[in-house]
Structure formats: structure tokens, C-alpha cells
Amino acid sequence: MDKRLQLLAANRILVVAPHPDDESLGCGGLIAKLAAAGRLFHTLFVTDGGASHSASFKWPRHRLAAQREWEAADALHFLGIGGHARTFLRLRDGDMPSAKSTEWRAAVAATAEIVRAFRPDLALLPWRRDPHCDHRASWHLAQAAIRPTRALPLCLEYAIWLEELGAARDYPRPGEAEPVAIDVSSELICKRAAIAAHRTQTTSLIDDDPNGFRLMPETIDRLTAAIESYYWVK
Predict the structure, then answer these.
(1) What is the pTM of this model?
(2) DSSP secondary structure string, 36-72?
(3) Is the distance from CB of 143 to CB of 137 less than 8 angstroms?
(4) What is the pLDDT along the chain (234 residues), one digit of tens a residue?
């Protein structure tokens, strides 16, 4: 079956977001499209998102992480899956545990349990070489949890920073991946509202860290085009 038709026919979708906001930026249009068709979702937020404004006194890490979970809940509401399952692993943003650590094994086990219980037929994952350490680690985490399952879901990978920050070696190699394009023009209002729900990342809500992270309008514009792009790795 054509991969586009296969993913649009999926009934149970696992979304893996390295940080709260990646679900909206990377695959918010497809989420909204499938949610409107009555599909079931489980969204897995891997890190706590607490490193985006590390110099803020008003927003220490625990407060920022809690706020980002509230923002994620709002974003999922705008995408049409506010009442669907979601899990926050709360690994440290920018400092995920090494693959040999006890914390890593516990995160893999928790993710594997979600896969076993939810039985997704589609998994939306970060691109394996997206130029952000948490995105790459989240891909490895998801793969470690999904690969042992008997019924492997279709896995599509979305890139957030590849076009802006990627080197040539980060892009798909010849014959490695097939691009999959999804028209989400009808879902752009929902997607933009979901992105805007992440106020700590899109506004000056946190005003005491001049070097804090903020999504630039041009990045949001790039990621809210009428077409969402994915990679299916052969």
C-alpha cells in the first residue's frame, strides 16, 4: 500500500515528542487531520522542556517544566486530542540519560509498556538525525521500545531543525528514506493555535532571560506550510 494511504488509514497513533511543542511543530497538521477522523492517540513527551530559559530567576526549572506540561495539554486540545492519552517521561531537557544508565533503561521500559498496551499501527517519531541531541536520543528511545514488538507499526519521522541547522550528513542518504508529503492546509488553523499554546516558547512570557529560547516567526512559518513532510525509512 502507498505509505500516504497507509498512514491515513491508521487507527491508533503514537506521537513521540522530544519536547512539549515538537508534537505541534512537527506533525500537528496530521494529528488534527486524523483526530477529526476519529482516530485514537497516545502522545509521549520525552523531556521536561525545562532547559529553554535556564538563566531565569522567575521561572526556575521546576516551574518552567510544569508550565510546559500545561501548554502541551492546551496544544493537544487545539489539535483535537485533548482527551486522549498522554505521558510525560520528564527526562532532563538537554541532558537525557546515557543509553547505559538505569534511568535510560527505565524510560525504555516505560515506553515499551505504552507500545504494548496501546498497540499503535502508526508511530510519528523525530527524524533520526535531526540536529538536536534530544531529538536524536528520543528517536533511539522510541526504536528501543518499538523494535521488540511483534506487530511493528508504520514509523514516519518528522524533522524540526534539519532545514535550519542540518549538515549534509544529517539528511537522508541515497536510498535510505522515502519522503512522504501530507496536505494539511485544512488543519493549519488548528496547528497554528496549538503552536501558539506553547507560550513560553513563542512569546515574551519569560522576560528575565535575554538568552532564553524563542521560536522565531520564520521557523513557525516554515513549519506551518500547507504540506507536512515526513520520512519513511526503508
Answers:
(1) 0.96
(2) HTT-EEEEEEEE--TTTTTT-SSS-HHHHHHHHHHHH
(3) no
(4) 577 777 888 999 999 999 999 999 999 999 999 999 999 999 999 999 999 999 999 999 999 999 999 999 999 999 999 999 999 999 999 999 999 999 999 999 999 999 999 999 999 999 999 999 999 999 999 999 999 987 789 999 999 999 999 999 999 999 999 999 999 999 999 999 999 999 999 999 999 999 999 999 999 999 999 999 999 997
- Laid out side by side, the sheet with 12-17 consists of 85-91, 40-47, 12-17, 122-126, 154-158, 227-233, 177-183
- Cβ contact 162:171 at 8 Å: yes
d(CA 9, CA 154): 11
61 strand-pairing partners: none
Cell of 24: 505541534
Q: Rounded CA gap, 189 and 229, in Å?
A: 18
CA distance 200 to 157: 25
| Cell 528575565 belongs to residue | 208
Compute the residue count for the chain.
234
Map out the domains of the chain with their CATH numbers.
Answer: 3-233 (3.40.50.10320)
Q: Which of 140, 156, 117, 160 is nearest to 23 (CA)?
A: 160
